[in-house]
Design brief:
Helices cover 60% and strands 0% of the residues. The chain has a domain of 81 residues. About 11% of the residues have low confidence. It has 7 helices and no strands.
């Protein structure tokens, strides 16, 4: 018995159903979810805070040599202003490296809490210089004698300060490096109290 011929329309409808089935089973995506245009394909959309940080870093990156130089000048100016304010207030965060640390702070306080002969050197030097310029033999002899007295007093006072400060540093900071602290303190004694930087943080006679 001869086989019945299969209609062509039935064949085409079967193939259409087979091609349509995988498309119907495809995962449904939410069309309302928007992808960040800056997010790379195949990667999750970054959070808003992360995206803002990335955009800010890109915006802050200098694009030309002129912009980079200008930014360096601005940063240097800001740093210098912070150091100036720190020298006036004693803020440890922005002090220059030579003034930072508890050892240097103690050395400053030790000097600022006492009278030092060396801090009066400049005004005494002016007086002695004026006396030596006068054409009076007696005054010139007195000026020469004052020079010797001032120098001897400064040397003696500096030796006493160095010995006592070294002893205090060894007692207060055992095991820590105090190198250069005594020299740092002696250089500070050569400055008048009101002109010292960082500004004194203790009063005369106050124990550091």
């Amino acid at each position: 018995m001869p086989a019945h011929p299969v209609p062509l329309g039935f064949v085409f409808r079967s193939r259409a159903k087979e091609e349509k089935a995988p498309a119907d089973k495809a995962p449904v995506t939410d069309s309302k979810v928007t992808r960040d245009p800056q997010a790379p394909k195949g990667r999750p959309t970054p959070k808003r805070s992360e995206a803002q940080t990335q955009r800010r870093s890109v915006a802050q990156t200098p694009t030309t040599r002129k912009e980079a130089a200008k930014r360096q000048r601005d940063e240097r100016r800001t740093q210098m202003e912070r150091q100036r304010q720190a020298l006036a207030s004693g803020d440890e965060r922005y002090l220059p490296v030579r003034d930072k640390g508890p050892v240097r702070r103690f050395a400053r306080d030790y000097v600022d809490a006492r009278f030092c002969v060396a801090e009066f050197f400049l005004p005494l030097a002016v007086v002695i210089l004026v006396m030596s310029m006068l054409r009076v033999g007696a005054l010139q002899n007195i000026a020469l004698l004052l020079w010797l007295v001032v120098i001897v007093l400064i040397v003696i006072d500096s030796v006493v300060i160095a010995l006592r400060l070294r002893k205090q540093l060894a007692r207060r900071f055992p095991g820590q490096s105090t190198r250069g602290a005594v020299r740092y303190a002696l250089m500070r004694t050569l400055q008048m109290r009101r002109l010292r930087l960082p500004k004194p943080q203790v009063k005369r006679g106050e124990r550091p």
